């Protein structure tokens, strides 16, 4: 069995994730991209179709990381590679601060400067982006993305596949539903139902997704 990681994705988010994997001592063998991907991503050769995944698995690769920013696509590709028998690894920056009592899923990315505090739960496939802070007892649902410089106060719940835009703030105890989009720079002071886009200070509904 081969110990190198296969990174699915070959764009800007993949570059950050490759550097996270290298920083924690993992080697990346290939990226798997699409026909319009570059030939290499941070010097890693890019295979330009998902069709390569089956051959890589047969060749003995068993670890994968899904480096795709879109929550729904990341979720879909994760299902596909795990069904093929790949195991998803985490990519966690040595410059992140993660509480020993936090619960972490698999396939998650935690970028530099992120802080995850006591007894927070970060579910599978989440992205906790650069400098985001997740305070005590927060629960971040599967394949959600907390963008750079967000601040979530204690006991906030974010539903699966939701996206919290760059620089947003969320006050304590707030519940955010599934597939919610919180616009950049928003301040969320009330609960948000599923499949809604909210923006502004305080955040108000823009439209239903
Ligand atoms: C919220 C968001 C998704 C809306 O995108 P959209 O559906 O294409 O909406 P539009 O750009 O057409 O804007 C619709 C209206 O909302 C307003 N609006 C959009 N985003 C806003 C924001 N973040 N805060 C306040 N108002 C916002 C626009 O000014 C516009 O107002 P108008 O109708 O009065 O002119 C997007 O603007 C956004 O904030 N994305 C977050 C991106 C991000 O954080 N990326 C991080 C990557 S790591």
From TrEMBL:
<dbReference type="Pfam" id="PF17836">
    <property type="entry name" value="PglD_N"/>
</dbReference>
<comment type="similarity">
    <text>Belongs to the transferase hexapeptide repeat family.</text>
</comment>
<keyword id="KW-0677">Repeat</keyword>
<dbReference type="InterPro" id="IPR018357">
    <property type="entry name" value="Hexapep_transf_CS"/>
</dbReference>
<keyword id="KW-0808">Transferase</keyword>
<dbReference type="InterPro" id="IPR011004">
    <property type="entry name" value="Trimer_LpxA-like_sf"/>
</dbReference>
<feature type="domain" description="PglD N-terminal">
    <location>
        <begin position="5"/>
        <end position="81"/>
    </location>
</feature>
<dbReference type="InterPro" id="IPR050179">
    <property type="entry name" value="Trans_hexapeptide_repeat"/>
</dbReference>
<dbReference type="InterPro" id="IPR041561">
    <property type="entry name" value="PglD_N"/>
</dbReference>
<protein>
    <submittedName>
        <fullName>Acetyltransferase</fullName>
    </submittedName>
</protein>
<dbReference type="InterPro" id="IPR020019">
    <property type="entry name" value="AcTrfase_PglD-like"/>
</dbReference>
């Amino acid at each position: 069995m081969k110990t190198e990681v296969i990174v699915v994705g070959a764009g800007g988010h993949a570059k950050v994730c490759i550097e996270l994997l290298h920083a924690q001592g993992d080697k990346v063998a290939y990226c798997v991209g699409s026909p319009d991907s570059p030939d290499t991503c941070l010097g890693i050769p890019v295979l330009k179709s998902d069709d390569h995944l089956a051959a890589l698995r047969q060749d003995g690769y068993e670890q994968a990381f899904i480096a795709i920013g879109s929550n729904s696509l990341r979720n879909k590709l994760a299902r596909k590679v795990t069904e093929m028998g790949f195991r998803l690894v985490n990519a966690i920056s040595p410059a992140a601060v993660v509480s020993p009592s936090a619960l972490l899923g698999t396939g998650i990315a935690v970028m530099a400067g992120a802080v995850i505090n006591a007894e927070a739960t970060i579910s599978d496939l989440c992205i906790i982006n650069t400098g985001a802070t997740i305070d005590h007892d927060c629960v971040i649902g599967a394949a959600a993305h907390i963008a750079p410089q967000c601040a979530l106060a204690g006991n906030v719940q974010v539903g699966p596949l939701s996206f919290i835009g760059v620089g947003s703030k969320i006050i304590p105890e707030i519940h955010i539903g599934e597939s919610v989009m919180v616009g950049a720079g928003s301040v969320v002071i009330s609960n948000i139902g599923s499949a809604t886009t909210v923006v502004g200070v305080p955040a108000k509904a823009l439209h239903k997704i």
